[in-house]
Design goal:
- Helix 22 (509-520) packs antiparallel against helix 23 and helix 26 (608-630) packs antiparallel against helix 31 (743-754).
- It is globular and about 75 Å long.
- 50% of the residues lie in helices and 9% in strands.
- It contains 31 helices and 17 strands.
- The model is unreliable at 1-33 and 760-770 (pLDDT under 50).
- By secondary structure, it is α/β, with parallel strands linked by helices.
- An eight-stranded parallel β-barrel has the order 7-8-9-13-14-15-16-17, surrounded by four helices. It has a four-stranded mixed β-sheet with strand order 1-3-2-6.
- It has three domains: 50-146, Chitobiase, domain 2; 151-489, Glycosidases (TIM Barrel, Alpha-Beta Barrel); 527-764, Up-down Bundle (Four Helix Bundle (Hemerythrin (Met), subunit A)).
- 51% of the residues are buried.
- Bound molecules: 2-acetamido-2-deoxy-beta-D-glucopyranose (8 copies).
- Residues 238-239, 242 line the site of one 2-acetamido-2-deoxy-beta-D-glucopyranose (NAG).
- One 2-acetamido-2-deoxy-beta-D-glucopyranose binds at residues 27, 456.
- It comes from Lasius platythorax.
- This is Alpha-N-acetylglucosaminidase.
- Residues 152-486 form the Alpha-N-acetylglucosaminidase tim-barrel domain.
Length: 770
Amino acid sequence: MLKFIRMGATVALWLQLFIVIFGLFVSSSQCHKLDAFQATLGHIRSRTSPEIQTKAAKDVAERLLGKEISKLFIMILDTDLGPVGKDTFKIIKNPLGEIEIRGTSGVAITWGLHYYLKNYCNVHISWDGAQITLPNTLPEVRVKITSNDRFRYYQNVCTVGYSSTWWQWKQWERNIDWMALNGINLALAFTAQEAIWQRLYRELNLTKEEIDEHLGGPAFLPWTRMGNIRGFGGPLSTNWHNRTIRLQHQILRRMRDLGIVPVLPAFAGHVPRAFVRLFPNANMTKIDPWNQFEDKYCCPYLLEPTDPLFHIIGEKFLRMYIDEFGTDHIYNCDTFNENEPGSTELIYLRNVGHAIFSAMNAVDPKAIWLMQAWLFVHDFIFWTESRAKSFLTSVPTGRMLILDLQSEQFPQYGRLKSYYGQPFIWCMLHNFGGTLGMFGSAQIINQRTFEGRNMNGSTMVGTGLTPEGINQNYVIYELMNEMAYRHEPVDLDAWFNNYATRRYGAWNEYAVATWQYLGRTVYNFIGAQKIRGHYVITRRPSLNISSWVWYDRKNFYSMWNVFLKARYGRGNSTLYRHDVVDITRQALQLKADDLYMIVLDSYKKKNITSFRSSASTLLELFDDLESILASGNNFLLGTWLSQAKDMAIDEEERRSYEYNAKNQITLWGPNGEIRDYANKQWSGVIADYFKPRWELFLNALEISLVQRTKLNTTEINNRIFHEVERPFTFSTKLYPVEPKGDTIDIAMKIISKWYNEETPSLSSSNTKTC
Ligand SMILES: *[C@@H]1O[C@H](CO)[C@@H](O)[C@H](O)[C@H]1NC(C)=O
Ligand SMILES: *[C@@H]1O[C@H](CO)[C@@H](O)[C@H](O)[C@H]1NC(C)=O
Ligand SMILES: *[C@@H]1O[C@H](CO)[C@@H](O)[C@H](O)[C@H]1NC(C)=O
Ligand SMILES: *[C@@H]1O[C@H](CO)[C@@H](O)[C@H](O)[C@H]1NC(C)=O
Ligand SMILES: *[C@@H]1O[C@H](CO)[C@@H](O)[C@H](O)[C@H]1NC(C)=O
Ligand SMILES: *[C@@H]1O[C@H](CO)[C@@H](O)[C@H](O)[C@H]1NC(C)=O
Ligand SMILES: *[C@@H]1O[C@H](CO)[C@@H](O)[C@H](O)[C@H]1NC(C)=O
Ligand SMILES: *[C@@H]1O[C@H](CO)[C@@H](O)[C@H](O)[C@H]1NC(C)=O
């Protein structure tokens, strides 16, 4: 309404008249969208003062560019710059030669800064590092950009498990800077949940033992929160709680200062087993085991949302959380993420939805329930349209915000008719488990984000990134981030050309050719197969692995060779070197698939000669993989482990965190319950985990060939577990935190060994091989 008053009565009157007439002609849901969501979501925005937001944006610039250079950028907050409910920035070069960036929030200003640096100064800022070389004279500019939607969302509930578990403030700070630079204005902020739960459990008279058997270790918090497991990797120490509380205050302050709205946790119904002792009459069901976790580590209770106790606990938790951290009125809650509701009755589902919302609403009458729509993908059969509709419409329209979690592959907004009126965010999930392995769906995100927004009756209010783990495949996230303001799809070839030029600081024909090739093949996956980072090298050895890719391997090897030619021009670029490691890693990953087929074939044909030679070649490949990864800063197990240990204050904690860090990326569970789900192609993991498994397996195959005995796979798997996997998770071996060797020298040695230029390479590119 404020907006109308400022515009003056006449304009407002015409505008209102226009809206009325417009409403008569256009599908009612479109108008409904603009009006209803402004009314219910309008308050989901920063309430920090303009001065603080401007200062926060300036600080980002200073951290990024240094004190002196950042003075050339004048940052001004102007909430009236663009339409209500969107973010706008405007950039001009003033007569003094300074760049003036106006924006509707701290985020919008920072986003504008990045927009200018990227599009006018050939700068590149990524998770892997930044390329910031400014021209001597800052280029002329006059541009005004408005976001397509209200929100740009960031993070999956698992990201804190797979990527940021061990981050201290410096890393969070860099990450929050990155969010603002990319226009992200809505982000999950889940740190320190356990500290508050622990407080509440104490108040409810749970014993320390009862709390410890529930809350799991740092690397497993997301899954404990979701009720999948309990206690594993724990207990959590007072140091951990204190640390995370301090950290969460820092995170929230910075997000709020910049104008990023943090999404806080709400009670979803998962409770410790001790609740049975404390509340014998409450209606609770033991959750089914998740991925064969034994009883000791699985199956907490789910408190029935319609039971009065749900309301009591939900209210208490949220109050306690808000008392400590304040609120921005938006709460994430996923009761049925990977478990089914107790009944299929529509009325029941309606009551459940209503009960979950009421618990939030009782504490905060402005509460918005943010829900990941993963349940509709995961339990596709259970969640029929009518059931989903009952559940979704049990909450007033606009008081729920849905993350269509993996829109690039399994969108639900179409099937569920724009979530029956609830606003949703189009999210690219892309990554599972933080695994490495190059892939992405450029063409899909370049089209379907627009289709989602423009479809009839669309309730789409944002775009988002929901990867389980970050620090991989940066390129696809950069493309996705642009979908937030672009009005039409980009020319992907041109886009990949620009990407390569920015990333390495200058145009280079080989680098550009490589990225354009990658854009058309590796990053143009359009299938429905689930990409989960499982390749021959990262899987537990067996005779049974089927590997496939959607592009031509031989072409990939040729491009690898082409990419390395860029070393003459770009050899000093840090990001080029990063990508040499990654592309060489990818080539070896593919080569291992090829070799595996030969090993398998010789084994089946009982050809000992050819078996021995292919097996030893495969093992050699692991050594080469280890050495190229060891040369890259961002591919070291040592870093992950040292960050984990840095969180500890005594030996016991250090041991525990080290085990957490190692178990998550290997066995994932005490007995390999979801083994290798979150595997990492890092130096240290290759040498001491992936390779020894294959070594043991190939030896066993050889023995069975030589002795003509049947292979006992049970025995081999037992040995792999007891001799390699488990010891790896408990070992306290120190791994380097500094890279070793010259990446380019190492890559050249590797390619000369593994690449044969004679290989024919011009078959079609989007073929699938199984
Ligand atoms: C916890 O125990 C205290 C002392 O025995 C008691 O006063 C309080 O009511 C108990 N709280 C709950 C929630 O049972
Ligand atoms: C945790 O914080 C509390 C309260 O500030 C303090 O009394 C306690 O000493 C801290 N403990 C650790 C291990 O940091
Ligand atoms: C528990 O809740 C379920 C689902 O609402 C209901 O079917 C069941 O009868 C309840 N049990 C008790 C003991 O109230
Ligand atoms: C969208 O709605 C318009 C008007 O109701 C209708 O003519 C058109 O066919 C619809 N398009 C689709 C793709 O459903
Ligand atoms: C191969 O995989 C299938 C399906 O996972 C499984 O049923 C079969 O037992 C496996 N065979 C061997 C030899 O491991
Ligand atoms: C890299 O830097 C070194 C030292 O500054 C210089 O001698 C060399 O020419 C540079 N190489 C390339 C490819 O730019
Ligand atoms: C075994 O494999 C080697 C190498 O591929 C080949 O030269 C040889 O003929 C094979 N031996 C038999 C008996 O097939
Ligand atoms: C395979 O090995 C397991 C474990 O060592 C053993 O229990 C089993 O009897 C063996 N099976 C055969 C067929 O030898």
